[in-house]
Specification:
The structure holds 2 protein chains of 2 kinds. By secondary structure, chain A is of the alpha/beta class. Chain A has helices spanning 39-46, 69-73, 92-102, 107-120, 136-148, 166-181, 193-199, 217-220, 224-229, 236-243, 254-268, and strands spanning 2-8, 14-21, 28-33, 54-59, 62-63, 76-79, 154-158, 185-189, 202-207, 210-216. Chain A has one domain (2-217): Rossmann fold. Chain A has a 6-stranded mixed beta sheet, with helices on both faces. A 4-stranded antiparallel beta sheet of chain A has the order 2-1-4-5, with helices on one face. The longest helix of chain A has 16 residues, at 166-181. Chain B is mainly alpha-helical. Chain B folds into 2 domains: 1-115 and 218-250, no CATH class; 143-216, no CATH class. Helix content of chain B is 67%, strand content 0%. Chain B is built from 10 helices and no strands. In chain B, helix 7 runs antiparallel to helix 9 (178-201). The relative contact order of chain B is 0.16. The chains are: A alpha/beta, B mainly alpha. Chain A binds chain B through residues 10, 44, 47, 49, 68-70, 73-74, 77-78, 80, 82, 84-88, 98-99, 102-103, 132, 146-147, and chain B through 4, 150, 153-154, 156-164, 178-179, 182-183, 186-187, 190.
């Protein structure tokens, strides 16, 4: 939860201007907005990497200014955009178990957890490979695994879909759905409108350091005025549906479009 | 770890007498400071060298950033001081070495804060240094701020994975930096490969003889600065050879722990 959050970098430029955001446990949220809107800055305040210059951020009722990043990291897992900024071990296994070792887990628990997360993210074949020899998309998944492995209560993913092919995106989507079903809070920062349209999370639109819209994906992604002010385009299906007469305007993904079109076809017969 | 120290070496486009100086004249000036600092071990002289640079920094409107680089250098400076003291040097000598370090640091800080990488490249080119070398040099200088941003991101990423930099004994603390250094080096290498490919696909190095739109020209003030620098160098040489400097000793020395 962020209350009247303001943040300015040491050079005096204020990036976030009084952001108010309440996130419930188990919420699934997409933070979207133009480049430089302050998305990454905002999520860095969630685990205390950046402390608010004014206002406050509470995580599970704990003020982030009053605790360390290391202790917040246990409950808030933050996966950075560029995997090259964090990979450093000789093998994928070491890389993924690094944080577990930091948090002092026992070796058998570590082994079990590493295996399970690598299987989920389709990385088991690379367990003994060097993370540096993997492709961009694979490195991204290793970075993801290295955070998800300690089961943080809240997960923040910065641009998780970059460099992933469609099948992997689909897997990621299913995985996120699974996480939220288990009660994990998932917050993604993304430009990927189609991915958001398929996941249908709560969408928070950020523009120039302010929240300009907050609500259901179906409402926000179909609102031309709102999307264009955050430099976004509506999902393709939504553009198609709104340009055709007699079709509902709140359809944003292929699956619900299929239901609507099916109904119409049956109605004609 | 703060990356603010890099601010004190970053070029800022300002219009001051120091900024508009010819890079070659400025380089000579800095080299004189460099040489003179290495000539003396007298703490008073070294302090004068350090203090004498302050008007130049003031003229270059870079006081604040210079202070930043000094603050960043303090850690290393105190390390130099302690190491000298521990290895059996006198208090005065240790102090002198520390002041010498700060004087050298500050002279480089002035140079890089007030000289644009482009001007520097031009100066090298006009000194008939091969273009590929000039280019490598200017690119390296230009990438320093980018690397600083990268370093901060890496620190943030590893902290988010439970890394605590200032935890544990000295050796553990040094080891804590491995997860920071490796990603930094790897991404620098990756970046350089990408840069090389991008350059080659834009026909880098096709013409062996390059022409330059801007040709550096020395002004009267540049010749004056060079003359003054030269004079100071001779003065320093004369002082170091013929003048008995007032000795300044603080009678304090750590007991020798071992013999070197």
């Amino acid at each position: 939860m962020a209350e009247n959050l303001r943040f300015a970098y040491p050079n005096g430029i204020e990036v976030l201007h009084s952001v108010d955001l309440r996130i419930q446990d188990g919420d699934f949220i997409a933070i979207m907005g133009e480049n430089g809107a302050g998305k990454t800055t905002l999520v860095k305040t969630f685990n205390g990497l950046l402390k608010p210059t004014d206002g406050r951020v509470l995580v599970d009722d704990v003020d982030t200014r009053k605790t360390s990043v290391a202790s917040l990291a246990r409950s808030v897992g933050l996966v950075f955009q560029n995997p090259d900024h964090q990979l450093f071990c000789e093998t994928v296994r070491d890389e993924v178990s690094y944080s577990l070792r930091n948090f002092g887990y026992t070796p058998d628990v570590i082994e079990k957890r590493v295996r399970s997360i690598l299987e989920t993210l389709d990385l088991m074949p690379y367990v003994d490979s060097s993370p540096f020899m993997l492709s961009g998309g694979e490195r991204k998944r290793v970075a993801l695994a290295s955070v998800l492995v300690w089961n943080p209560k809240h997960i923040v993913l910065d641009e998780p879909t970059i460099g992933q092919d469609y099948q992997q995106k689909d897997r990621l989507r299913n995985f996120i759905v699974q996480l939220t079903a288990q009660g994990t809070t998932v917050i993604i920062v993304t430009h990927d409108v189609e991915f958001v349209a398929e996941c249908k999370p709560r969408v928070v639109l950020l523009s120039r350091g302010k929240i300009i819209a907050d609500g259901k994906a179906e409402e926000i992604l179909t609102d031309d005025a709102v999307t264009s002010s955050a430099s976004l385009l509506r999902p393709q299906i939504s553009i198609l549906f709104s340009s055709l007469a007699g079709l509902p305007h709140d359809v944003i993904d292929v699956y619900s479009a299929r239901v609507v079109v099916n109904k119409m076809i049956r109605g004609r017969k | 770890m703060s990356t603010r120290i890099f601010e004190g070496f970053k070029f800022a486009k300002l219009h001051t007498p120091i900024h508009t100086m010819d890079p070659r004249a400025k380089f000579l000036m800095i080299m004189v400071v460099f040489a003179v600092s290495l000539m003396f071990t007298n703490v008073l002289i070294l302090a004068v060298i350090l203090v004498a640079q302050i008007p130049l920094i003031y003229l270059g409107k870079s006081m604040k950033r210079w202070a930043g680089s000094m603050k960043g250098g303090l850690l290393l400076a105190s390390l130099i001081f302690v190491m000298n003291l521990v290895t059996g040097s006198s208090f005065t000598y240790s102090l002198a070495m520390t002041v010498r370090f700060l004087a050298l640091l500050s002279s480089f800080s002035i140079f890089f804060m007030t000289t644009s990488p482009d001007d520097l490249g031009l100066a090298l080119q006009q000194a008939h240094v091969p273009y590929t070398l000039c280019f490598t040099f200017t690119t390296a200088v230009r990438l320093v701020p980018t690397m600083a941003v990268d370093a901060q991101t890496v620190i943030d990423a590893q902290k988010s994975r439970g890394l605590e930099l200032d935890k544990g004994n000295l050796f553990k603390r040094i080891r804590n930096y491995i997860p920071i250094l490796i990603p930094l080096i790897v991404s620098a290498i990756r970046r350089s490969i990408e840069l090389a490919e991008a350059l080659e696909s834009r026909a880098f190095g096709v013409t062996s003889k390059r022409q330059s739109l801007i040709v550096l020209q020395m002004k009267r003030s540049d010749y004056l600065a060079m003359a003054v620098s030269g004079l100071l160098l001779f003065l320093a040489l004369w002082v170091s050879l013929y003048v008995q400097l007032p000795s300044f000793e603080i009678p304090f020395q750590l007991p020798r722990l071992w013999q070197i």
